[in-house]
Write a structure and sequence with these properties.
Alpha-Beta Plaits, eight-stranded antiparallel beta sheet, 8 helices, 29% helix, alpha+beta, 8 strands, 219 residues
Length: 219
């Protein structure tokens, strides 16, 4: 059922064009372990309302990307002026009102990759989603953008879809084309941001419309 929560976003039949270079905010929708047990009818109601709200925010140009994790939960990317506006839009979702998720919101500095409107014809794709978690006191930007890491990113540019940070000490993300977990771990074993010992990480599988991140940005 979780995949249906996000699917409607990708059924809007838009041409492949980049969004403007505005201010991005990254939202994690983490499954709330303390959420209420509800009936199937109530869950269906929340699902339908959730989908409609995603469609509305997408049509408004507020949500520019969204997708579920195979391991539960999901992500949004907003393009708005302030974090306050993000929270205002999130508050319109009845699923969030019902506390189905615990939310994390971060300003998102996308250093590699471009978010695009999806094409009229598309396929769903799975990406390896790595979240970097800095150890206490670590300046993420220094570990994510130093010379050694830039060389690392260049070496694996054909695998990398998106690279970005959430601020000086909030971590960041790396999206790789759908690779097996062992292959991802092999790549990460060479990542200076990890080898330095200054960051830990988690790996999840993100399901999203192919074309959400423009392949042209990798050329």
């Amino acid at each position: 059922m979780k995949s249906k929560f996000f699917l409607l976003l990708f059924c809007l039949g838009l041409s492949l064009t980049s969004f403007s270079e505005g201010t991005f905010y990254f939202v994690f929708l983490n499954t709330n372990p303390d959420k209420d047990v509800i009936s199937e009818d109530s869950a269906q109601y929340l699902q339908n309302a959730h989908l409609k709200n995603i469609e509305r925010l997408y049509n408004m140009g507020k949500i520019v990307a969204a997708g579920p994790f195979a391991e539960k939960g999901g992500i949004y990317v907003f393009e708005v002026d302030t974090e306050e506006e993000v929270w205002e839009h999130l508050a319109t979702d009845v699923g969030i009102q019902a506390k189905r998720w615990k939310l994390e919101v971060f300003p998102f500095d996308m250093q590699f990759g471009t978010i695009c409107k999806i094409p009229e014809q598309y396929e769903m794709a799975t990406y390896s989603f790595i979240r970097y978690i800095p150890r206490r006191g670590t300046n993420t930007k220094k570990t994510m953008l130093n010379k050694e890491r830039i060389r690392f990113l260049s070496e694996y540019k054909n695998n990398i879809v998106v690279q970005g940070t959430f601020g000086a000490d909030k971590g960041g993300i790396l999206l790789l084309d759908g690779l097996l977990t062992d292959s991802v771990k092999t790549i990460l074993s060479k990542d200076p941001a990890i080898v330095s010992g200054l960051n830990t990480y988690t790996i999840r599988n993100l399901w999203i419309a192919e074309g959400t991140w423009c392949k042209e940005s990798r050329e």
